[in-house]
Amino acid sequence: MSRSPEPKTEDEGEWRFGIDDVGPDGIVEDTPAEAEPIEPGTPKAENVVFVLLGVLLAVGLVLVTIFPNAA
Predict the structure, then answer these.
(1) Which residues, 6 or more positions from 23, have their beta carbon under 8 angstroms from its beta carbon?
(2) Nearest-CA neighbor of 60 among 47, 70, 45?
(3) Which of 9, 48, 30, 52 is nearest to 60 (CA)?
(4) Where is 50: in which H helix or E strand?
(5) In angstroms, rounded to a whole number, what is the distance separating the alpha carbons of residues 49 and 26?
(6) pLDDT tens digit sequence for 13-68
(7) Three-class SS of residue 66?
(8) Which whole-number Å values give the CA distances from 24 to 19, 44, 69, in the listed order?
């Protein structure tokens, strides 16, 4: 692997923004104009199971930490 003797500066890297991302005044637009709002949906059973498993695991770890000789 060859290394160049001169370190790269920030100006030599890739472009951070595309032409469409920058407005006419040079200001970066945070949200694209065609962004659609996020609509709520129904949770899937698989996701609910994993969330409940995580909650039970967290509660169990907290209880074991607080009461180490309870079991």
Answers:
(1) 29
(2) 70
(3) 52
(4) helix 45-66
(5) 48
(6) 677 766 666 767 766 666 665 677 888 899 999 999 999 999 999 999 999 999 98
(7) helix
(8) 10, 44, 67
Interatomic CA distance for residues 21 and 16, integer angstroms: 10
Does this model's pTM top 0.70? My answer is: no
Q: How far is CA 30 from the centre of its chain?
A: 16
Contacts of 64 (CB under 8 A, 6+ apart): 70, 71
How many angstroms separate the CA atoms of 61 and 68, rounded?
10
Query: Is the CB of residue 17 less than 8 Å from the CB of residue 28?
Result: yes
**Length of the chain, please?**
71
